[in-house]
Amino acid sequence: xxxxxxxxxxxxxxxxxxxxxxxxxxxxxxxxxxxxxxxxxxxxxxxxxxxxxxxxxxxxxxxxxxxxxxxxxxxxxxxxxxxxxxxxxxxxxxxxxxxxxxxxxxxxxxxxxxxxxxxxxxxxxxxxxxxxxxxxxxxxxxxxxxxxxxxxxxxxxxxxxxxxxxxxxxxxxxxxxxxxxxxxxxxxxxxxxx
Length: 194
Ligand code: GRF
Prior knowledge:
Helix content: 25-40%
Number of strands: 7
Oligomer: single chain
Bound molecules: 5-O-phosphono-beta-D-ribofuranosylamine
């Protein structure tokens, strides 16, 4: 990973697979006055990700990775990330699991946002499981990525109360709003230690 000089901007690659609302929000945050963050590259494993439209809209480069041959794809991706001098990777709705090798290369420099109060509900359908278990709260977590799924060190979490008539959809909508606040906060929190 490229070393960061104290005064440099922090170059970020955001990895997505779908809608990209977190991506859009991170872009907006990074373009604020005095921001230390710059979104340099949008990476997706899915050329049809709706979120890729933000590449065009905000004039950010994009890279589609084909996952047929993981080792080869990740090697190409690593080269590209080096070329773009990326300091930090933000996963935001990225639905592929990165290899151990890739994660080790960027050790401590990959963040993810997950829609649950980790360590509860790793993986998919988090809100559905929280409602089914009659939990009082769901929420979201920004954490470092390690080689075990949704298990890296927690950076920040936000609780969201589960309402009586919540469906997983209504709950997901409220949690997503909180995700948009939490991810930028988490970036600021870790940026001093990069
Ligand atoms: C979010 O709920 C995030 O927590 C999860 O995937 C969803 C991505 O949403 N990892 P979006 O693509 O950012 O709108």
